[in-house]
Amino acid sequence: MRMRGTAALAALVLSTITAGAQGTKPNDAQIAHIAYTAGQIDIKAAELALQKSHNKEVRAFAEDMMRDHKAVNDKALALVKKLNVTPQDNDTSKGLVKQADEKEASLKKLNGAAFDKAYAENEVGFHKTVNGALESTLIPSASNPDLKDLLRTGLKIFQGHEQHAEHVVQALK
Amino acid sequence: MRWLRKGRPLRLAWLLGLAACPVSSAVAETIQIRVEDLGFVPAQVSAHVGDTVEWVSRDFVAHTATARDGRWDVAIPADGKGRITLTRAGAVAYYCRYHPGMIGSISITAPP
């Protein structure tokens, strides 16, 4: 189930981002919305982990996710304000939210070690997907240099998250 | 009470020497390490016991400089600073607890 969910998310993100809203690459307002939405999704997942998990490593990871994604999203909000850009909702953001809601519902049904494992594995898959989208589409498509820089820094941070999540998955085995 | 062990007479002599000769070449230094783009720059530094290491961050996310042997754990706030005064010689590998891919090392020797 997990692999199917991750593969479906990856397919959705890559296809919708690549295709864009009108068959073209996403614009900066859409890119900002997608990046911000992805951050909010991971913050929400971390909040759930902090409510449900008693595992020290999982909790520390979740706290790291809250701290970093909040910092990146605060920076993103400040940037769009400075650029006078209104983030624009789009099919990719909507798809991300839909998938995240479904994942949240399934995580909520789990407890203890089963929750920890599912949360950590989902974090690996989620970061892998978002990082792939940043690298292949969002960063190359961004036209504003400040937005491009922020996305590049975000990618570096999130690649660290992906490795960290993989480490947590291994530690839970 | 570790300071009571073998290093103490030497350190005491050094301190007394410092007191007698205030203008000494052995004045403790502050060594700055930049924290930028999720990295410690430079990643390797040399220092002496008594020196202060100061990490100056330009990143907008928080970091730590955490010694792998557990001797210190320094918080480095976003766009802020963290510092530690080195009290023991040795080679210390450190990393960021929040971003374990960030690594550095300090080679600490006795004061000159």
Automatic annotation (TrEMBL), chain A:
Entries under InterPro entries matching the protein: DUF4142, Ferritin-like
Keyword field: Signal
Limits of the DUF4142 domain: 27-167
Leader sequence residues: 1-21
Protein name: Membrane protein
Domain of life: Bacteria
Species: Methylobacterium oxalidis
UniProtKB/TrEMBL annotation, chain B:
Keywords assigned: Signal
Pfam families from the UniProt entry: Cupredoxin_1 (PF13473)
Superkingdom classification of source: Bacteria
Residue ranges annotated for the EfeO-type cupredoxin-like domain, each copy included: 12-105
Signal peptide residue numbers: 1-28
PANTHER family: BLL1555 PROTEIN
This protein's name: Amicyanin
Record lineage: Bacteria, Pseudomonadati, Pseudomonadota, Alphaproteobacteria, Hyphomicrobiales
